[in-house]
Design brief:
Low-confidence stretches: 1-28, 446-451, 455-473
Radius of gyration: 22 Å
Order of helices and strands: HEHEHHEEEEHEHHEHEEEHHEEEEH
Strand content: 15-25%
Structural class: alpha/beta
Helix content: 25-40%
Mean pLDDT: 89
């Protein structure tokens, strides 16, 4: 080895060590019990934020969060809302519990929900001394016993169902669905604004405990309804065309962005912004008005357009600003990261499937190699569809049909390379089948509509509410 190469290698190692040392220093300085604000959008596609490539409108507030923190390029969710919310609130694959198999849970269904006693992020943080608040969409059980107040949240203001009219607050089955804990709320107004206002009020209180706020907007989910300033100009749906319009969709996303700006300003005014871990994500891929390039497919599908979502983590003084990571992640990793940041501990009977990604966010370690799995009964063969993502590889199966894609050169999943990489295909097939055997089977009649399925998602579910076992389930 030449002296020049020796010197170059030494300098590269020194620079890397310095960066690692700085990141570790920031990581070591993080507060033990930060406030936590988790923000979830609904049906927001991967490219529907201007910081992720949306060309026809801007989202300056969320873009600022990305500039002040770290942006994930390879973050995943389930293809439909209920499974993703199960994954977040339980920190586990949604296929471990019956309600997590619903794609989504229909608005008339009163028999399914997270089983009583199943730990959630909120219950774990509550045990660790946090005040816990759920604001916005729940979609993990329509009956009161399945609501947020029964699963670790001190208070709840929002909708239980998969969707609700932004003005009348009626869900897909026609029932009124805006709640103040267990009682119908008398609040009037546009849901995006109401959820923003409640989050601001919670932040403005005097706090004697660290808080965990789960702020789950239903925007920009259907029905496509413009915010108040544009409502009078909203056109009637055109015959044969998708509901809504590009203009209405943009207004709904921008309204949410503006609301998040008010929430962030409330944190700043209360001098809490530097001691609050903020995470932004979406619950699944986008729909007809989303910008999904370069991916194919959309909500309800196992293709990248249905699974890939924007994720941003911002923690001032801990997560260095302006960073991007290609860390492969899934919604339950956000749960594990929150639990770890709060100093909480998972229930040993229900081990988390997610992993703490804060070291990756701070730069204290590189991206972690792992394989993630996905499954849906929504589309395709009677057995549904499945997929595994490992490194640059994406394995896809529908019935007996298999595909292998190299996402590093083919993010649109157009070029099947299984014949050229049979070893990779066999390896991922084996991993997927082993994982699938540990999950609950897809329910019979999954695509039946039991009312208010959630727009592009299909019907609800049937059967008694129950959990899916503990460790190893």
């Amino acid at each position: 080895m030449s002296k020049l190469l020796d010197r170059r290698t030494f300098l590269q190692a020194a620079v890397a060590a310095t960066g690692l040392g700085l990141a570790q220093s920031a990581f070591a300085a993080r507060p033990k019990k930060p406030n936590i604000l988790f923000i979830l959008s609904d049906d927001l596609g991967y490219g529907d934020l201007s910081c992720y490539g949306r060309p026809d409108y801007t989202t300056p507030v969320i873009d600022t969060l990305a500039k002040e923190g770290i942006k994930f390029t390879d973050a995943y969710a389930s293809p439909v809302c209920t499974p993703t919310r199960v994954a977040f609130h339980t920190g586990r694959y949604p296929h471990r519990v019956e309600v997590g198999l619903q794609e989504p849970l229909g608005d008339r269904n009163l028999t399914l929900g997270i089983a009583e006693g199943h730990p959630t992020v909120a219950s774990l943080l509550k045990k660790a001394g946090y005040a816990t608040t759920q604001i916005g969409k729940w979609n993990l059980g329509n009956a009161p016993q399945f609501g947020p107040n029964s699963h670790g949240f001190d208070e709840f203001f929002g909708i239980r169902a998969s969707q609700a009219d932004y003005y009348t607050h009626k869900n897909g089955s026609g029932a009124y669905d805006l709640w103040e804990n267990l009682e119908p709320s008398k609040e009037e107004g546009y849901l995006t604004d109401l959820f923003t206002e409640r989050a601001v009020k919670v932040i403005q209180r005097k706090h004697d405990k660290p808080f965990f706020i789960s702020l789950c907007y239903n925007a920009p989910h259907t029905p496509y309804e413009a915010p108040p300033d544009l409502k009078s100009a909203q056109p009637a749906p055109a015959a044969g065309k998708p509901a809504g319009s590009a203009e209405i969709y943009a207004a709904m996303v921008k309204s949410m962005d503006t609301g998040i700006g008010k929430v962030m300003q409330a944190l700043k005014d209360a001098k809490l912004d530097k001691n609050t871990l903020v995470i932004f994500a979406s619950d699944n891929g986008g729909t007809s008005w989303s910008y999904l390039k370069p991916f194919s497919g959309q909500k309800g599908q196992i293709s990248e357009g249905g699974l890939r979502v924007p994720v941003i983590v911002r923690w001032t003084g801990v997560v260095p600003p302006g960073r991007t990571t290609n860390q492969i992640s899934y919604t339950f990793d956000l749960s594990a990261t929150i639990v770890a940041a709060a100093g909480a501990k998972a229930d040993p009977g229900y081990p988390l499937d997610g992993i703490d990604l804060m070291d990756v966010c701070t730069g204290a370690r590189p991206a972690i190699e792992r394989t993630l799995f996905f499954r849906s009964a929504q589309r395709g063969a009677p057995t549904g569809q499945g997929a595994a993502r490992s490194g640059k590889w994406k394995y896809f199966v529908a019935g007996t049909t298999e595909h292998l894609y190299d996402l590093s050169t083919d993010p649109g999943e157009q070029n099947d390379v299984k014949e050229a990489h049979t070893d990779v295909l066999e390896n991922l097939r084996g991993q997927y089948r082993k994982w699938d055997a540990q999950m609950l089977p897809n329910p019979v009649g999954q695509n039946a509509d039991d009312g208010g399925g959630g727009g592009g998602g299909g019907g609800g579910g049937r059967g008694a509410a129950k959990g899916a076992g503990k460790a190893g389930a």
